[in-house]
């Protein structure tokens, strides 16, 4: 086996970083849920440790310029009119999500209707309450780094079911943001790569894959590899930039043109201490308005040596601020934090950011999504092998799609396909 990696590092979307004071901060994927059993298994095997994300206190929301402090965790600071409306809609979505086939979403009962509808259309036809509309917009930005019109209802429902439930997706304790790895998740890939030795070849961008009757030739920058099978582990948007001979079947080729990546600039803003905790806040701020950071969480290190807020520019806002300078984005991020947490937020000791849209070998995150009509037209090509080419990566996972856990499980699935193919 040979691993060809385009970058001069491993870990892909799980990039590690540091503040000036030496504290490790995750610039890419970071949180692990209790159900992420394969990732947790690797963490243990590789001698890494996890710790609980900070989650004491209550969250806040910003809606029409007004900051509201939640009275309890479940309502996120929604007003008495909006809270039951959001609950009602969440119930409808949970019922619909139950109907989705994870192994073949295009075969879901009512797939054609669910896929023809954008999530924005579904929201519009299910409520007229402005705060509820704003809530769902904020949720889609936070989960998909996209706008509600940019994904189909079927994709939303598939993702909810794949990741257990809406509640799991948005929760810290008991949810997808529950745990972190001491020192950062990139160490999982680094330690795996160390164990593999010179099997992992860095700086080898794959440009062309040629299949013959007997094998497959993989052309990369500075390397050419002949193998019996190949697993392509990049998201469809990147897989479509590789040349194939013979050309990919039409449905697979079209899929790579239909699954854009989300839009995110991730920021980490550090303070001498996590001052928001003293005010009874858990650091979760959800922005229901347009402009500025769309969501923040407490991302302080486990040793409590300083306070860190992680904040995300997401969806349309990420694309809008991508043209600004880092200094201008820093000002915007701080402005958001002052609005959320008060004047103490005005004087951070450090600011670091990562624009994932500008990364040649990622081109956006958190992952790829499917817009209206795409699951039913192109979905069958997402994971189906093409001759000797197998597809893996978080986007191709049935369970925990979009997450590190989904990436690992998709790798196991593709490896089993290859082993099956080699022995037949
Ligand atoms: C800001 C951010 C926050 C996130 N938060 C979380 C989180 O909290 N929890 C979670 O579980 N997940 C999170 N994710 C998602 C998680 O990082 C991904 O699901 C996971 O890393 C996907 O792994 P992958 O192997 O499928 O793809 P990738 O990590 O993208 O790996 C693909 C690899 O292929 C390489 N490559 C690209 N093109 C080529 C080429 N032509 N030739 C050779 N190599 C190539 C890339 O350099 C990369 O190393 C987040 C992602 C980001 C960016």
TrEMBL record:
<protein>
    <submittedName>
        <fullName>Monoamine oxidase</fullName>
        <ecNumber>1.4.3.4</ecNumber>
    </submittedName>
</protein>
<feature type="domain" description="Amine oxidase">
    <location>
        <begin position="2"/>
        <end position="419"/>
    </location>
</feature>
<dbReference type="InterPro" id="IPR050703">
    <property type="entry name" value="Flavin_MAO"/>
</dbReference>
<keyword id="KW-0560">Oxidoreductase</keyword>
<feature type="binding site">
    <location>
        <begin position="5"/>
        <end position="6"/>
    </location>
    <ligand>
        <name>FAD</name>
    </ligand>
</feature>
<dbReference type="GO" id="GO:0097621">
    <property type="term" value="F:monoamine oxidase activity"/>
</dbReference>
<feature type="binding site">
    <location>
        <position position="312"/>
    </location>
    <ligand>
        <name>substrate</name>
    </ligand>
</feature>
<dbReference type="InterPro" id="IPR036188">
    <property type="entry name" value="FAD/NAD-bd_sf"/>
</dbReference>
<comment type="similarity">
    <text>Belongs to the flavin monoamine oxidase family.</text>
</comment>
<dbReference type="InterPro" id="IPR001613">
    <property type="entry name" value="Flavin_amine_oxidase"/>
</dbReference>
<dbReference type="InterPro" id="IPR002937">
    <property type="entry name" value="Amino_oxidase"/>
</dbReference>
<feature type="binding site">
    <location>
        <position position="206"/>
    </location>
    <ligand>
        <name>FAD</name>
    </ligand>
</feature>
<dbReference type="Pfam" id="PF01593">
    <property type="entry name" value="Amino_oxidase"/>
</dbReference>
<feature type="binding site">
    <location>
        <position position="395"/>
    </location>
    <ligand>
        <name>FAD</name>
    </ligand>
</feature>
